[in-house]
Specification:
mainly alpha, about 160 residues, elongated
């Protein structure tokens, strides 16, 4: 457990950041009055998400690997964070959908049907807690692994060879 203490810390911080992002989206009206802009603006969560992975791997490099870290070590560290975040993603989605923005599904269903994007049945089948939990369990590892693969490239640092 001591070996993954940094990953656990950053995974928890990441989950908290995602919940705060949902609160921000709710407060700015992206889950109701500005739901038409939600699909565009929700992508901006990638900025803090990538930053969290960068900070996590830099923390791991500095405080666990004494300033040097291979790509493989960084990738494994990011993979551990991704696994933890994926495991708790259904709970995160439940908290979001139940407490932060309980009207989101009704609002997005109504919007999708009114704009002719989906039928009522299609929208109800897609926009619901169960569907979003499944999407989170599939999407989180996919995005986490891509982010990890890229961030590990930039956070690796090889040992300096002194001759």
């Amino acid at each position: 457990m001591k070996n993954i203490k940094i990953e656990i810390k950053w995974a928890i911080a990441f989950v908290i950041m995602m919940l705060l992002w949902m609160v921000l989206e709710k407060l700015t009206g992206l889950h109701d009055v500005h739901i038409d802009k939600h699909a565009f603006y929700s992508n901006f969560v990638m900025i803090p998400a990538i930053a969290f992975y960068v900070f996590a791997l830099l923390d791991k490099r500095k405080n666990f690997y004494d300033g040097t870290m291979s790509y493989k070590q960084g990738f494994i560290s990011g993979l551990i964070i991704t696994i933890i975040v994926t495991i708790v993603s259904p709970l995160t989605q439940y908290i979001t959908s139940t407490y932060i923005t309980p009207d989101y599904f009704n609002n997005v269903i109504k919007y999708s049907v009114e704009k002719g994007m989906m039928t009522q049945t299609e929208a109800e089948n897609y926009f619901n807690l169960n569907s979003y939990m499944i999407q989170a369990v599939i999407g989180t590892p996919f995005m986490g692994l891509i982010t990890t693969a890229i961030v590990a490239l930039f956070t690796k640092r090889n040992r300096k060879i002194i001759i």
